[in-house]
Amino acid sequence: MHYIKKEFEEAIKEIANQEELKQLKAKFLGKKGRLTELFKQMANLENEQKKEFGKNINKLKSYIEETIIAKQKEISEFIKKKSLEEEAIDITLPSRRKEFGAVHPITKTIMEIEDIFRSMGFDVEFGYEIEYDLYNFEMLNIPKEHPARDMQDTFYINDNVLLRTHTSPTQIRVMKEKKPPVMFISPGKVYRRDSDITHSPMFHQIEGLLIDKDIHFSDLKGVLSEFLRMFFGDVPVRFRPSYFPFTEPSAEVDIGCIICKGEGCRVCSHTGFLEVLGCGMVHPNVLRNVNYPEEYNGFAFGLGIERFAMLKYGIDNIKLFFENDTRFLKQFSF
Ligand code: DAH
After folding, report:
1. Nearest residue CA, atom 2 of ligand 1?
2. What pTM did the predictor assign?
3. Counting CB atoms within 10 angstroms of each CB, which of 16, 20, 152, 207 has the fewest?
C-alpha cells in the first residue's frame, strides 16, 4: 500500500494541467484504478487483517482525493493569475491621438466658389466626363478642322466620343434640357494631354452660364468682379480682349498678382497680373444650336479650380493635389 502512495506522490508532482490531473485521478481512483486493485486483494485476507487493511485503503483514498482537489485549485489559480497578468492594461501608456480627416483642397475650393455663386442666385448643374464631340466642340461653335481644336489636346475614345476637354459642353446639355432664362455654374473634372508642374492630364473647372433677356457685357463684368473680390479679397481686376469660339466678344480676366502684390515676380512673369478665367457674351451660333429664341442672350465663363486653389493657398506644384500625401492634405482641416 505504501508504494501506491509513493507512486501517486511522484506522479502528481509532474501534473501541469487539468487534463493530466483528470487522467491521474482515473488511474488511482477510477473503476479499474490502483485502489480498486487493492480492494480486490482484500478478499484474500483473514477477517482481522481485512478490517485493518480496509481502514488503511480508505485513509489512502481520502488522502488521494484531498490532494487532487488541492492540486485542482492550485492549477486553476495559476491559470487565473497568468491570464490576469497577460491581459493587464498599462494605464500609464499615453493614449493614441484621434486623427480628423480634412476636406480635399480642391473640394474645399469648389465649395467656396459654389457658396459665392449660390449667394448671387446661380444654380449648380453637372455634366458628363465622357462626352460627345458634338457637345464638347461642334455645338460650341468649334467645327472639325477649326484651329481652336489645337488649343486643347484631346483624349478621344472614338471619332464621336471623347473625355471632355472643358466643362463648356454642360452649357449645351443644360440649354437643351431647360427653357431660358438659365443661371448656373457647373464644377467637374476635365481631361487634356498635358502634364508639367502647372498642368495635370486631369484637372477641374467651373463653368458658368447666365442667359436671360437684355444681358450686357457690364452684367458679366459686375458678376465676375464681385466673385473675384469675394474669393481673393480686395485685389485689382482687369478684363483683357481675347478669343473663344463660343463667345463674342471674349475676354480673359486677370487679378493683381497675389504673390508680389503687383510688384512683378516669377509667378506673374513680371507683369504684376495673373490670368484667372475666360469669359464672354455667348456666341449667337451657340444659342441658335440649342434653339433658344432670338430675344435671349447672356454670358459664360470658365475657370480652372486648381489655379484658384494654388493662388489662394500659395501652392506651387499642381501634382500635390493628386498625390494624397496626408501631411499636405491635413493642412486644410480648418
Ligand atoms: N472652356 C474654356 C477653356 O477650357 C474656358 C472658357 C472660356 C469657358 C470662355 C467659357 C468662356 O464659358 O466663356 O479654356
Report:
1. 302
2. 0.72
3. 16
